[in-house]
Amino acid sequence: MQKLIIAIDGPVGSGKSTVARRVAALLGYVYIDSGAMYRAVALKALRRGVSLDDAGALTALAQATHIDLRVQDGAQRVFLDGEDVTAAIRTPEVSQSASKIAVVPGVRHVLVAEQRRAGERGGVVMEGRDIGSVVFPDAQLKIFLTASAEVRAERRWREHQQKGDAIDLARTLEEVHERDRRDRERSSSPLVRAPDAVVVDSTAMEPEEVARLIVLLAKGQAAGKTG
Ligand code: DC
After folding, report:
1. 30 in Cβ contact with 21 (< 8 Å)
2. Of 92, 107, 102, 13, whose CA–CA distance to 58 is shortest?
3. Which numbered atom of ligand 1 lies nearest the CA of 99?
4. In terms of DSSP H, where are the helices of the chain?
5. How many A from CA of 128 to the centre of ligand 1?
6. CA-to-CA distance for 191 and 189, rounded, in angstroms?
7. Best mutation site among 129, 134, 155 for ligand 1 pocket (most ligand atoms within 8 Å of CB)
8. Ramachandran angles phi, psi of 126, nearest 5°
9. Could you report the per-residue pLDDT of 110-154, keeping only the tens digit for each?
10. Rounded to an integer, what distance in angstroms lies between the CA atom of residue 124 and that of residue 71?
11. Is 11 in the pocket of ligand 1 (CB under 6 A)?
12. Is 80 helix (H, G, I), strand (E, B) or coil?
């Protein structure tokens, strides 16, 4: 079967990571979390005290950064200049900062090039905001995954609860709205649905159902291309 590039885009909390990881496992594909790259650059900027409003300094920082996504014991780990930052990039502070640095065209340019290199051979499931629209406009299968803001906030809140982060649900919903606004309104590669993307609303669906639906679509697509 042909090895596809599967692009999964959608807003925060739509379930992209869980679903993309599962689709990759079911198909034996590589899973690539493009958001982790924006998070890693944001973490480095925070640590170095680089202003999140200084586009030139952020671009230079991204150019001088080495991000490695490796699979270890079946789980993806994120390395920033050789240091394992898998947990460090998941704090609320890094989430907010990542959405700020993601508006900088120079940062996007560097990371999009990395993402293209990582996925060009196919057999990948890449998730993000602009994978189907910018990174791989020719991807054979594009999914735009969404869900209501309330359900997305609740999912994020549960993730934080499980990690022991004290954060309230109302605040999480506000943050979801804030990040949605920033992701959609930025001028450089905003979150948009590619015209040829399949829209999947996961508000009332379990991740496993969504993953199986995408696998069915992928198999249909691969069979159509080869047969
Ligand atoms: O998916 P995530 O929450 O880990 O992404 C972190 C931030 O990075 C998010 O605010 C949007 C941004 N992002 C982006 O602009 N483009 C991508 N392809 C992936 C993430």
Report:
1. no
2. 107
3. 10
4. 16-27, 34-48, 55-63, 92-101, 105-119, 149-163, 169-185, 207-226
5. 6
6. 7
7. 129
8. -115, 130
9. 999 999 999 999 999 999 999 999 999 999 999 999 999 999 999
10. 13
11. no
12. strand
| Separation CA 35–CA 150 (nearest Å) | 21
CATH class held by domain 5-222: alpha beta
179 lines ligand 1 (CB under 6 A): yes
CB 129 within 8 A of CB 183: yes
Q: Collapsing DSSP states into helix, strand and coil, what is residue 58?
A: helix
pTM of the model: 0.90
Greatest CA separation found in the chain? Answer: 55
pLDDT of residue 162: 87
Q: Which of 19, 34, 103, 134 to mutate to test the pocket of ligand 1 (most atoms within 8 A of CB)?
A: 34
Least Cα distance to 98 among 186, 202, 219 occurs for 186
**Does ligand 1 lie within 6 Å of residue 156's CB atom?**
no
Determine contact, residues 211/22, Cβ cutoff 8 Å. Answer: yes
